[in-house]
Amino acid sequence: MKHAASTILLLASAALLASRLVSPASSAPQPRRLDVDAPDQASPALAEVNAEVDRLRDRLASVPDFSAPSRDPFSFGRAPERTRAPLPVATPAPVAEPVVVTPSLPKLVAILSAAGPDDVTGRTAVLAIGDDVQFKKSGDDVGAFRVEMVSVDALVLVERASRATFTVALH
Question: How many domains does the chain have?
């Protein structure tokens, strides 16, 4: 045990010595002490420096205006481009959208068939126009419309003036 304690003490001393040798010096350099006569020798230089500082402060107080450069240093030998005034942009007059007036279509109430379901000529459409009930076949006129075709569940009307086609479904 005596040897173990001395070995530990020897190793700890060696580690402490090694860390002291390897680590950089941590002490800061001591400032130089000036003689008492130094301010008297430096006063002309100090006065000159102070005068220069005052002159620079006065110069900074009035900042000159910056003017834009008159030439482009990146385009050597080229004539400067002339700026053109922008042309006035003509706004087009708004185009009025055509007003589409859908005519009042009759209401398809029923479809009657005198023959079989494949017989197109035997179908009759039952229309409700206001309080009136009318029976119309293909080719008949209904107000401003002509009945183009009567199918199983719809009625095709063609407006006579504009030739527009409308399909009225069975409700």
Answer: 1
CA-closest candidate to residue 107, choices 138, 141, 131, 123: 131
pLDDT, tens digit (0-9, with 9 covering 90-100), for 108-161: 999 888 766 556 567 899 998 888 899 999 899 988 899 998 888 888 999 988
Range of the domain at 125: 107-169
- How large a percentage of the chain has pLDDT more than 90? 12
The residue ranking higher by pLDDT, 24 or 149, is 149
Question: 147 in a domain, yes or no?
Answer: yes
**Rounded Cα distance, 81 and 49, in Å:** 49
Q: Measuring CA to CA, which residue among 151, 143, 149 is closest to residue 103?
A: 143
| 141 within a domain of the structure (yes/no) | yes
Query: At 2, which helix (H) or strand (E)?
Result: helix 2-22
Q: Which residue has the higher pLDDT, 84 or 33?
A: 84
What gap in Å lies between CA 137 and CA 111, rounded to an integer?
10
Q: What is the DSSP string of 84-150?
A: PPPPPPPPPPPPPPPP--PPPPPEEEEEEESS-TT-STTEEEEEEETTEEEEE-TT-EETTEEEEEE
Does some domain include residue 49? no
Residue 98 lies in a domain: no
